Amino acid sequence: MEKTLMIIKPDAVKARHIGHIISRVEAEHLEITGLCCLHLTREQAEEFYAIHRERPFFEGLIRYITSGPVVVGRLECEGAVEHWRKVIGATDPKKSAPGTLRALYGIDIERNAVHGSDSVENGIVESRFFFPE
Ligand code: IDP
Ligand code: MG
């Protein structure tokens, strides 16, 4: 089954939105096949976001994503990647459609509450990163 990776980011964990976000996952009929709470090390964060290494926001992103615990989940359903991206909304919460998780819980373009894989291929790679088979 198609897989995508969810991360409930530190801002959303601190603001006690874990329950709301997981409820939404289930309401959207995404099956949770892996779930854990952890505090990413700088090394893990830099590897996970390696594709953004040259971007001006990289250092801020690494500091933010390692600033507190996160909840990581492997979500599965047909078309999981596209479906979850639709549920979370655009990167910038100000530009996310109403009712999307980033519109509801995101603070700004960096602290945008949740992660979702951006392609089927990355859904597999990112799922393996946290849930090696
Ligand atoms: P995505 O999470 O919607 O796929 P990406 O472009 O892959 O967006 O960026 C990864 C993460 O980096 C974003 O979710 C956000 O936390 C952060 N980010 C992206 N663009 C910016 C920016 O312009 N300023 C600050 N942080 C950013
Ligand atoms: Mg991305």
Please write out the topology.
Elements: E1 3-8, H1 10-14, H2 18-27, E2 31-38, H3 42-48, H4 58-65, E3 70-76, H5 80-88, H6 101-105, E4 114-116, H7 120-130
Antiparallel strand pairs: 1-3, 1-4, 2-3
Bound molecules: inosine-5'-diphosphate and magnesium ion.
Task: Write structural notes for this entry.
35% of the residues are buried. A 4-stranded antiparallel β-sheet has the order 2-3-1-4, with helices on both faces. The chain starts with a strand and ends with a helix. With 133 residues, it is α+β, with helices and mostly antiparallel strands. The radius of gyration is 14 Å and the shape is globular. It is built from 7 helices and 4 strands; from the N terminus they run βααβααβααβα. 41% of the residues lie in helices and 18% in strands. The chain has one domain: 2-Layer Sandwich (Alpha-Beta Plaits). The structure holds inosine-5'-diphosphate and magnesium ion. Inosine-5'-diphosphate is lined by residues 52, 57, 60-61, 91, 109-110, 112, 115, 118.
Q: How many discrete domains?
A: 1
Strand order of the largest sheet: 2-3-1-4
Compute the number of helices: 7
CATH architecture, please?
Answer: 2-Layer Sandwich
What is the oligomer described by this structure? single chain
How many strand elements? 4
Backbone CA Rg: 14 Å
The percentage helix is 40-55%
CATH topology, anyone? Alpha-Beta Plaits
Shape designation: globular
End-to-end Cα distance: 14 Å
What would you call the structural class?
alpha+beta
Low-confidence stretches: none
For the record, what is the CATH homologous superfamily label? Nucleoside diphosphate kinase-like domain
The mean pLDDT is: 98
Order of helix and strand elements from N to C terminus:
EHHEHHEHHEH
Which hetero compounds are present in the coordinates? inosine-5'-diphosphate, magnesium ion
Strand percent estimate: 15-25%
